[in-house]
Amino acid sequence: MPVAGPINLLGMEPVTFSESGGIRYLHFGSELIQGAMRIRDPDEIYLEYNQQMMAWLLFLETRPKMQIAQLGLGTGALTKFTYRYCPSVTSTVIELNPAVIVSARTMFNTPDDGRRLKTIQVDAKVFVADPTNHHKFDAIQIDLYDAICDGPSASSLRFYRDCFQTLKSPGVMTVNLFSRHKSFDINLNNICEAFDNRVLLFPESHDCNVVAMAFKGPLLEVEWQDVSKRAKLLEQQTGLPTRSWVKGLSQVNARQESQLRI
Question: Where are the alpha helices (DSSP H) in the chain?
Fold first, then answer.
């Protein structure tokens, strides 16, 4: 059922909302879902692929002054989760549509900017191309889709090379892709080229999303049982289904079955 009229600022895509079964959904003027929030638990990451976008936590210890860039705000699911469960981390959110920023704060309980959170209204491609942002972030989370959802709105080799430059070493990038769409191979090939084939894929989620995870820095060589220990701790601390991630990553990615080496 609709819960509010559209928010449309500066001629950008209109932002609309609906609710069903205690879940509030974000739309860009169509029935396609751009994000979701469980109303009784607004800090939970409700969608499976959104949860997997936090997989950098498996490989990077949070610490004071750690910098995370989130390209695409949506309902603020990643922003809220990081704000609550990673108090030592500073998040920079990049969102072009001002209506999305307004709706995240008014309809989806996203906190206002402050010491640990900064929101910048700019095109993500411009942000990562800016040399002043290079070698600045420990992790980058990318979820960039428009109203048509015809693949990610930023997918070129240049874009992913700029993302590589924006990361520190070591650094991790997670990207939401559509698995059953022509854009999937284009994006995956460009990510692999930009990151020297240091890329892992999650199993396809029920809504045909696949999260890709790319690595920058020294060779990572670790036993899966050690990753599992880290996953168990994260699951206890955050409620994310991180232990299932380890099984999926080890099974889906070729030559990674016995040991993670990437």
Answer: 48-52, 77-85, 98-107, 124-129, 157-166, 183-194, 224-238, 242-252
Who's near 189: CB < 8 A, 6+ residues apart? none
Bridging pattern class, strands 137-142 and 117-120: unpaired
For 207-237, the pLDDT digits (tens) are: 789 999 999 999 999 999 999 999 999 999 9
* Three-class secondary structure of residue 215 per DSSP: strand
User: Are the CB atoms for 27 and 58 separated by under 8 Å?
Assistant: no
H/E element holding 154? none
| Pairwise CA distance, residues 6 & 27, whole Å | 9
Q: Which residues of 47-73 are buried (b: 16+ CB within 10 A; e: fewer)?
A: bebbbbbbbbbbbbebeeebbbbbbbb
Per residue in 36-94, pLDDT (tens digit) is 999 999 999 999 999 999 999 999 999 999 999 999 999 999 999 999 999 999 999 99
- Rounded Cα distance, 91 and 116, in Å: 6
Q: Is residue 105 pLDDT above 60, yes or no?
A: yes
For residues 124 and 154, is the Cβ–Cβ distance under 8 A?
yes
- Residue 103 in tokens: 């709706």
Instruction: Report the pLDDT value the prediction gives residue 168, as an integer from 0 to 100.
Output: 98
Tally Cβ neighbours within 10 Å of residue 187. Answer: 25
